[in-house]
Amino acid sequence: MDYEGLRALCLSMPGAFEDFPFGPESAVYKVRGRADGPAKMFALLMQGNEGTRINLKCEPVLAEQLRAAHPEITPGYHMSKKHWNTVSANGDLDRGMIHDLVQDSWDLVVDSLPVPERTALGWKRLAGRG
To answer: From CA 40, how far away is CA 31, in angstroms rounded?
Structure first.
């Protein structure tokens, strides 16, 4: 998946918008349920010498499993290595898996938003969470 494909995928998530708080070389994708509500980052998209990469939030145990199984997935670049992965879009990961990783990141972040924000997004709680 190329940069524009990843950008479109991130923007297709409900409540998602693009921001550039770190400069034009790093697109940050945040989610919020209401225009005046808090926003949280769920993805950081980068294009550089290493190609197209995206940082995505992940459950810690799953993050380690994904890194062990896929060389295209590494600890989050400039992020918490426990909660974030960097995914290279230049490897052998198929579109379906990348879509699932973006969706999982969005879900984890939305789960941490206040109830009014989640309600505005029409989001249901993740399975296994209180």
So the answer is: 6
Tell me the C-alpha distance between 92 and 40, whole Å.
29
Q: Which domains are assigned to the chain?
A: 3-119 (3.90.1150.30)
Q: What is the pLDDT of residues 28-57, one digit of tens each?
A: 999 999 888 889 999 999 988 888 999 999
SS3 annotation, the chain = CCHHHHHHHHHCCCCEEEECCCCCCEEEEEECCCCCCCCEEEEEEEEECCEEEEEEECCHHHHHHHHHHCCCEEECCCCCCCCEEEEECCCCCCHHHHHHHHHHHHHHHHHCCCHHHHHHHCCCCCCCCC
